[in-house]
Specification:
Blueprint (H helix, E strand, L loop, with lengths): L2 H49 L9 H27 L13
Length: 100
């Protein structure tokens, strides 16, 4: 076997190993994403149940309050953006709307 054949074989083996490793890492990322989605859904359900008074626990209380505060900030930020958009009409009265 020539030197170049050995190099080609080593490169091919290395590329195959890299591809296998990449596939394994991708699979791990997918599972982590599924777990994150499950936790997010679980958290949302806990907050919903806490809001309805169907679940309460001393360890959940600060987390539920944190989620409520974040939701309030998000809603407040949305309300702050709405008036500026409403103050600007899409088509000023002086100009007719464009025709297509």
């Amino acid at each position: 076997m020539s030197f170049m054949d050995k190099v080609k074989g080593a490169v091919k083996t290395g590329a195959e190993q890299a591809a296998t490793k990449a596939q394994e890492e991708y699979a791990k990322i997918q599972v982590r994403r599924e777990l994150s989605d499950a936790y997010e859904s679980l958290g949302a359900k806990v907050v919903e149940l806490a809001d309805r008074g169907e679940v309460s626990h001393a360890e959940l209380t600060p987390l539920v309050e944190q989620a409520r505060a974040a939701q309030a900030k998000l809603e407040s930020a949305g309300k702050q953006q709405e008036p500026s958009a409403a103050a600007q009409p899409e088509h000023p009265a002086e100009e007719p709307p464009p025709t297509t």
